[in-house]
């Protein structure tokens, strides 16, 4: 946990953003996996962690904006709990560690909310995303579960986004530590990528590295020789020479700061000419996009820069044709790069996603596109110092998508469909780094993970 002043300061800043009423955060609960006593590993809600730091289930918190008081609600353990869980600090002691003086059992929360509702006080809450929280919140507020999101407080959401998006130095340091653990995960995975190895042997090993060095993986490991499926969680294929292995994996620590890194390597460690050709195009897009990162630049522009670089590269390989900038403007590259360039990263891998992507990533100036490909860009607005973003361009040959586009002769003035046909067995390549927006540019976080053809071949050889 950070020192208690960190949490008090964050709550003070939140207070300064809002005018009155109660701000109300529910911590997460235990969630059954396959039977009630067999729960998933406990993961605290990120907003609760950010403002109240405590990492136990069944806690709630209130910031009373009018009285200037903070409260933590939770039940102290009894002897039956102690038999299973060991002795736990009291709620009072836990609250003191994060600078909160007022505590009460959970029944106190019900009373506080009931009184506030009776008095017609404004109750600010953020949109819930877990079933258990939705039920709890719905019961407390008397709002139908389907109406909860629509009634969430937009001023609170905007204030939380404003605070959490800008990472301070202690947060960047935590993220960077997690990128360093990802370095171990990825370099180990690369060395294991030999013909005959089954994907799950690598996936299991790198997940173990996450657990042994930090906390759990920050999202289920994406690892596949079928990297053309963007989020491929099937790990049953045997690696064969000629395929590229996509590994998209990161981890989080006990404070829940995370990393999210992708590397793609040729099975066996040596790129063939076709693999090298496509790889260099993705690498160039990754490096060009990172170099364009600086405060004031709309991320949508950097996405389009990467898209244009991809169109240029694919044109030079004879896969696309015509003017690359025009091709990218028309969306021809989305046959190969159908997703967004990246997303904010922090306490969540898709940081703050639960608050509503359009409120996080877009504003009056930069609106979300409805076009295929660009619509998937999670974040488009201007970057600011302190944002941490992923930069993750990719090129994928998705046979089913190619068939549809080809049948429609879609954007055929920019795509050599005959050449594309010969790449249907290629798979995909994605290269992802975690990048901090600095005062005048960018910094790729963490110990550099092999990325060029030469670095990868040297490591794997
Ligand atoms: N690494 C998973 C994602 O960015 O969606
Ligand atoms: Mn990512």
Give the helix/strand layout:
Elements (H helix, E strand, L loop, with lengths): L3 H14 L4 E5 L5 E4 L2 E2 L6 H7 L7 E5 L4 E5 L5 H7 L5 H7 L4 E3 L1 H13 L4 E2 L6 H11 L6 H4 L2 H12 L3 H24 L6 H15 L8 E3 L19 E6 L11 E6 L6 H19 L7 H18 L7 H7 L26 H5 L26 E4 L2 E3 L2 H10 L8 H5 L6 E3 L2 E5 L4 E3 L8 H8 L1
Parallel strand pairs: 1-7, 5-6
Antiparallel strand pairs: 1-4, 2-3, 4-5, 8-9, 9-10, 11-14, 12-13, 14-15
The protein binds glycine and manganese (II) ion.
What report would you give on this structure?
The structure is a single chain. By secondary structure, the chain is an alpha+beta fold. Helices cover 40% and strands 13% of the residues. The chain has helices at residues 4-17, 46-52, 79-85, 91-97, 106-118, 131-141, 148-151, 154-165, 169-192, 199-213, 273-291, 299-316, 324-330, 357-361, 399-408, 417-421, 453-460, and strands spanning 22-26, 32-35, 38-39, 60-64, 69-73, 102-104, 123-124, 222-224, 244-249, 261-266, 388-391, 394-396, 428-430, 433-437, 442-444. The strands form five sheets. The protein has a five-stranded mixed β-sheet, with helices on both faces. Helix 1 packs across helix 8. Manganese (II) ion (MN) binds at residues 260, 343, 390, 392, 432.
Task: Identify the notable features of this structure and list them briefly.
461 residues; alpha+beta; Creatine Amidinohydrolase, Chain A, domain 1; Creatine Amidinohydrolase; 5-stranded mixed beta sheet; 3-stranded antiparallel beta sheet; 17 helices; 13% strand; binds glycine; binds manganese (II) ion
């Amino acid at each position: 946990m950070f020192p208690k002043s960190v949490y008090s300061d964050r709550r003070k800043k939140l207070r300064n953003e809002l005018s009155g009423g109660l701000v109300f955060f529910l911590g997460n609960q235990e969630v059954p996996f396959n039977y009630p006593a067999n729960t998933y590993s406990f993961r605290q809600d990120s907003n609760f962690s950010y403002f109240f730091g405590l990492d136990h289930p069944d806690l709630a918190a209130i910031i009373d904006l009018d009285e200037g008081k903070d409260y933590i609600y939770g039940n102290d353990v009894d002897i039956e709990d102690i038999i299973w869980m060991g002795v736990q600090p009291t709620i009072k002691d836990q609250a003191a560690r994060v600078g909160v003086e007022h505590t009460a059992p959970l029944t106190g929360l019900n009373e506080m909310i009931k009184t506030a509702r009776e008095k017609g006080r404004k109750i600010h809450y953020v949109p819930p995303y877990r079933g258990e929280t939705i039920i709890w919140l719905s019961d407390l507020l008397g709002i139908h579960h389907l109406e909860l999101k629509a009634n969430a407080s937009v001023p609170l959401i905007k204030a939380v986004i404003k605070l959490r998006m800008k990472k301070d130095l202690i947060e960047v340091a935590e993220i960077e530590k997690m990128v360093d653990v990802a370095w171990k995960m990825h370099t180990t995975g690369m060395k294991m990528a030999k013909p005959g190895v089954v994907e799950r042997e690598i996936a299991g090993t790198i997940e173990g590295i996450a657990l042994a060095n930090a906390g759990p993986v920050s999202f289920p490991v994406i690892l596949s020789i079928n990297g053309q499926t963007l989020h491929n969680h099937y790990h049953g294929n045997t690696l064969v020479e000629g395929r590229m292995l996509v590994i998209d994996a990161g981890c989080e620590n006990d404070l829940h700061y995370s990393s999210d890194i992708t590397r793609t390597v040729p099975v066996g460690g040596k790129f063939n000419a076709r693999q090298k050709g496509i790889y260099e195009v993705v690498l160039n897009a990754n490096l060009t996009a990172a170099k364009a990162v600086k405060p004031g630049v709309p991320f949508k522009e950097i996405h389009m820069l990467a898209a244009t670089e991809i169109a240029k590269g694919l044109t030079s390989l004879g896969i696309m044709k015509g003017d690359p900038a025009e091709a990218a403007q028309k969306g021809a590259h989305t046959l190969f790069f159908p997703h967004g360039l990246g997303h904010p990263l922090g306490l969540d891998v898709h940081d703050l996603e639960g608050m509503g992507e359009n409120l996080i990533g877009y504003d009056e100036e930069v609106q979300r596109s409805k076009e295929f490909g660009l619509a998937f860009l999670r974040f488009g607005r201007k970057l600011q110092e302190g944002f941490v973003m992923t930069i993750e361009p990719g090129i994928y040959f998705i046979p089913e998508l190619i068939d549809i586009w080809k049948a429609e002769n879609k954007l055929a003035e920019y795509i050599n469909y005959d050449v594309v046909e010969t790449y249907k067995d290629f798979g995909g390549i994605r290269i992802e780094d975690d990048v901090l927006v600095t005062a005048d540019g960018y910094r790729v976080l963490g110990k550099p993970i092999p990325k060029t053809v030469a670095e990868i071949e040297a490591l794997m050889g």
